[in-house]
Amino acid sequence: MLATPAESWLTSGQPCIGVVVHLPYPDVLETDMHQGFELGIMLDGEEDRHFEGLVMRLGPGDVWLSPAWEPHGRRSTAANTREVVVQFLPDFIGDEMFDDVSCLSLFAVPPAQRPRTANAEMRWQVLAVGQELAREIEQQPSAWLTGVRLAVLRLLLILCRGWNPEDRTGLQRGIRMNRFSRVMPAVRLVQSEPARRITLAEAALACGLSASHFGALFRHTMGLSFGRFCLRVRLAHAAHLLLALDLPVETIAQQAGFVDGNHLHHIFPKYYGCTPARYRERGSTS
Hints:
Blueprint: H1 9-12, E1 16-22, E2 30-32, E3 37-44, E4 47-51, E5 54-58, E6 63-66, E7 72-76, E8 81-88, E9 97-98, E10 101-102, H2 105-108, H3 120-139, H4 144-161, H5 177-192, H6 200-207, H7 211-222, H8 226-244, H9 249-255, H10 261-272, H11 276-285
Antiparallel strand pairs: 1-8, 2-7, 3-6, 3-8, 4-5, 4-7, 9-10
């Protein structure tokens, strides 16, 4: 059950949030790549979460974090897996800091370095927040979105407190909300024309910055280079077209801004774990 339709949440100004129940399909890796930050809590069941270079086995009380436009997947391994998921843009939680660490920094580090549930006490705390989020989302009482925001911040605080000091290397200055504001014109430009190869200079101009300043600011803020961000957006566009249009993969590749079908075939499995044809086949039968 999603509280806000995934296709409209960016334009509506509300986060995409929901309590999701999955049936077990052990042989199916469901993949996703989205425009906002994602935070999830396992409430019941068990599943594998796949990130680039990392597979996490999750059970009740475990969490995952994913920044914008990061490809990731899930494979259910138990019946009636239940989780609460919140996808949001940075302004939903604002410029919050935990001592010297921005809460947005927790998403920007590589997957293996992101905070996780570390012990039984933390697991109990995480599950309590997860149940609170589920109640807010399912019952939607007065000011329920504020309740969701406060619960998300509380969860991030729990995770930050359990983060090992060595994981904070280089994060003392944090990622500030105003930095996201500086690069958002480039993000919107790429999202508005996902198949076009937008240059670093063009993106920098949209943000009113020099190319060198923009490149460094974008990498620090988003956790990846501008070029890699553009590649992820093109891949997400290709994935959408594969399911939406009954066209040859070669044509889809060209419409998504890739040189040809071979180029898409080479890159697609690295992010989605299967060939474009297999992705289309899996989507048509799910």
